[in-house]
Amino acid sequence: MMRFLTFAILFVVSYWVFRGRSRLLGPLKSTNKDLNLPKELVGMDAAFVWGANGLTYFFKGNKYWRYNDEEKRVGDGYPKNIKAAWIGIPDNLDAAMQWKNGKSFFFKGLDYYRLDDLDFQVNPNYPKKISREWLGCSSTGNIDP
What we know:
Layout: E1 7-11, E2 14-19, E3 22-29, E4 46-50, E5 55-60, E6 63-68, E7 73-74, E8 80-81, H1 82-85, E9 95-98, E10 104-108, E11 111-116, E12 121-122, E13 128-129, H2 130-133
Antiparallel strand pairs: 1-2, 2-3, 4-5, 5-6, 6-7, 6-8, 9-10, 10-11, 11-12, 11-13
């Protein structure tokens, strides 16, 4: 079965599914009964498909859930504490995604974190500033040519 959820952008109770820059689905409601999500995930902070195992992960507050798209269910034993498993990833995320280079990125406030998917921890020298690294702004806030 082809996997369609590449990454999702969440806004309180709605989400969109993209592959690259192409929107595949959305907006859809995260409260959709077909997803079979626990009620505590309403208003989640972030979600993404992790390339290491192809499963979807939902984040809310200091907890995370592992979700199987094909079975339409959260794994047994979830939620779990973010800091216990995703070493160096902060609580209360703003967004998460798997980039085309196969790296996992997490965003919070003005910073982003790159996860080493093999060691399951944030890469050295992170977090970094979103404005500088993703948007091309200088340290003074100007766009670098």
